[in-house]
Amino acid sequence: MSVTETAYRDAISRFMSGVTVITTAHGGELQGITATAVSSVTLQPPTLLVCLNRQSATCRALIDSGLFAVNVLQSGQQELAQRFATKQPDKFAGIAMTTGSLGMPLLDGALAHLECRVSAQNDVGTHRIFFGEVVSVGVAEGTPLGYFRGKFATLES
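The structure corresponding to this sequence follows.
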């Protein structure tokens, strides 16, 4: 029995996930993409994974640089999430950001920043899974931005 793409998408859309922007820098160019396929893997060493479509410019730049940052977005940053979900050429134009210790772009106002060095990667279907050893973190207070059934959402305590 085979699961259709529509059935799978409908079922997985019921899993609320956090919204992040994965950023990287390579050859003097900044790249970034909105991603919900991000997960903690282990505490020792601190490692997380991100899944990116292999056709994306961010994926290609990340492969070349071997470094990336996960910017965990907070409620009120939907516009930022939408901007980085597009293929517009300069997603960083006019965006407030700093440069992390690994040289990765860190988006101002994010709930957390995690800079990572790629420790392993693997292709599955249309995507590449990157495992990143976390080498620096920064956190702030706020309410996380979520994604549920194709729409942005926030958590109420």
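DSSP finds three helices and twelve strands in the chain.
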